[in-house]
Amino acid sequence: MTALLIKDWKLFKNQGRYFFTILVIAIAILIAGSEEYTTFTTSYITFVVAYFTLSTISYDEYDNGMGFLMALPVTRRIYVSEKYLLTVMLTTGAWIFSIGINWLFFRSGASEDSLQEMLCTAPVFLMTVFIFLSISLPLFLKFGPEKGRLISFGILGTAALAVFILSKMNIGLSEIKALDRNLPEQPFAVCGICIVLSALIVFISYTISVKLMEKKEF
């Protein structure tokens, strides 16, 4: 697994200019904006880095590379485990890094309410990203990067459309508003719930991915 992690880390390093550009854009938004933009920069940096972990599967699939990898002393379970470990490490690292940037920019002027809101919304967004990755990784492994990307974004678009329709029909709005008012008062409880749910979702996704990978032919 260590060799696979080193391979993907080198791919990550080769995209250094790309990620540097993302960082510059995020900092520019923070400089030009206000503390209200902290949620956007956290989501922006975290999602972009998280999506890169999916692109490593595209590199592996290129020019029948997956068949070559499976010919090495690497089991299919180890391959899947490495992808999930890489995903969790890079996504969580990007999330922590983005929160650190936000704190450095607004630590002097941010109100206590704003800090509490950030402590609540940031874990929820991280859990949302893990849900997206937990859906996408099995699809990428089953159908390949191209079809997997289309299906995962199709599911994401359908979910967004469903939320939009429900909001227009005023279904569940009162409960959501009540939850939104109460969440900032319990940031650590929110963080704990998000950690447990994220771990459960990722574990279920990992189990499915292992079964799919073991049945896949190259």
Structure notes:
It is a single chain. The protein is mostly helical. 86% of the residues lie in helices and 0% in strands. It starts with a helix and ends with a helix. The model has no long low-confidence stretch (mean pLDDT 78).
Q: What are the main properties of this structure?
A:
218 residues; mainly alpha; 0% strand; globular
Quick summary:
The protein contains nine helices and no strands. The protein has 218 residues and is an all-alpha fold.
Element order, helices and strands?
HHHHHHHHH
Question: Which consecutive residue ranges, at least 5 long each, have pLDDT under 50?
Answer: none
Radius of gyration, CA atoms, in whole angstroms: 19 Å
In total, how many beta strands?
0
Secondary structure layout:
Elements (H helix, E strand, L loop, with lengths): L1 H13 L1 H17 L5 H24 L3 H7 L4 H31 L5 H32 L1 H24 L4 H10 L4 H29 L3
Helix pairs in contact: 1-5, 2-3, 3-5, 3-6, 5-6, 5-9, 6-7, 6-9
